[in-house]
Amino acid sequence: MRTMVAGMGLMGSALADALLQQGLPVTVWNRTPERCRAAVEAGATQASSFAEGAQNCDVLISCLTDHEAVTQSVITSDVGEALAGKAFVQLSQATPDQSLTFADWAARHGIGYLDGSILGYPKDVRAGDCFIIYSGDPAVFETCHDVLHAMGAKPRLVGEKPGVATAFDKAYFAFYYAHAVGLLHGAAICRASGVPLDGFLDLMVEAYDWRAADRISADALKSGDLAAREATLETHAHAYNQVALFSRSVGADTGLADAMDRLFQAGIDLGHGRDEIAALIEVLNPRRD
C-alpha cells in the first residue's frame, strides 16, 4: 500500500523509516520542507503539497504537532476529496473529543478512520518493537494491517469507537509519568542521603520485576474485589509516610510525597483502610451511583 507520513519530527521520521525498511512506498510532507531531506535520502518521495501527497497515497498517517496542526493541514476540502475511499490514520496528539471531530470529517468524505497512540520512543519504532494502539472501524484496521504492523510491529485495536485510543493514551501517560517521576524521586533521595545511585538504579530498572506488584492491583480492579489480601491501604500509607519524612530530613523535595500522602489519607477517610491499595481508584474516580 502507498503511504504518506505527514510530519517529519522525531517520531514522524521514525515512522517513515520503519515503513521504508519494510519496502513500502512512502511519501513524506512537512510544513518545513527541509525536514523531509533525510527521509528522501532514504528512499521516500517528498510531496510538493499536502493535497498532492494525499492524492498519491492509500493510507495517510498524521504525526503532526497537535490538533491545530491537523486541522490546518488535513481537515480541508481538497484533502478530503483526495482521500475519499482511502484511510486516515491519526497519530498526532489529540483529545478524545478532537478525535471525534476528525472521525466525523473522515466519515463525511468517505474516508476510513483510525486514531492511535504510540507507546514507545522513535528508536522502538525503528527497531520494530513498539506497541501502537488504535481505535476505529475494525475493517479499516484489517485493511491497513500491513502498514500498521510495519510502523510498530505490535498494532492493537483497543476499541471500535473513535477517541478510545486517545483516551487510552492519556491513561498511559498517567501511568508512565507517575512511574518516571517516582524513579527520579527515589534517585533524589539516594543522592541526598549518600546512597549509591548506581545500585539503586540497577535494582529498580534491571532486577526488580514491578509487574508482580502491579498484577495485585490489576486483579483487584478487574474483579471489583478490593478487600486486602496482600497488604492494606493503611499499611501502604504508613510506609509511604516515611518517604515524606525522610525526604524532608535530607533536603529532597517533598511535593510528590506530600501529594501521595494526601491521596492515601483520602482513601482511608473514605473507609478503604482495610482494602488493597487498588481502592485508591475510588479517590481518583469516585463512584456516582
Commentary on this structure:
It is a single chain. The protein is of the alpha/beta class. The protein has helices at 10-21, 37-41, 50-55, 67-73, 77-83, 96-108, 122-126, 138-143, 145-152, 164-193, 197-207, 210-223, 233-250, 255-272, 281-284; strands spanning 3-6, 26-29, 45-46, 59-62, 87-90, 112-119, 130-136, 153-159. The protein has two domains: 3-161, NAD(P)-binding Rossmann-like Domain (Rossmann fold, 3-Layer(aba) Sandwich), CATH 3.40.50; 168-284, N-(1-d-carboxylethyl)-l-norvaline Dehydrogenase, domain 2. 57% of the residues lie in helices and 14% in strands. Strands 3-2-1-4-5-6-7-8 form an eight-stranded mixed sheet, sandwiched between helices. Helix 1 links the parallel strand 1 and strand 2 (26-29). The longest helix has 30 residues, at 164-193. It is elongated and about 60 Å long. It starts with a strand and ends in a 5-residue tail after the last helix. The model has no long low-confidence stretch (mean pLDDT 94).
Supply the CATH architecture of the largest domain. 3-Layer(aba) Sandwich
What name does the CATH topology of the largest domain carry? Rossmann fold
- What profile does the largest beta sheet have? 8 strands, mixed
Uncertain segments? none
* Number of spatially distinct domains: 2
Radius of gyration: 23 Å
Beta-strand residue percentage: 5-15%
Number of strands: 8
SSE pattern: EHEHEHEHHEHEHEHHEHHHHHH
Q: How are the secondary structure elements laid out?
A:
Elements: E1 3-6, H1 10-21, E2 26-29, H2 37-41, E3 45-46, H3 50-55, E4 59-62, H4 67-73, H5 77-83, E5 87-90, H6 96-108, E6 112-119, H7 122-126, E7 130-136, H8 138-143, H9 145-152, E8 153-159, H10 164-193, H11 197-207, H12 210-223, H13 233-250, H14 255-272, H15 281-284
Helix pairs in contact: 1-9, 10-11, 13-14
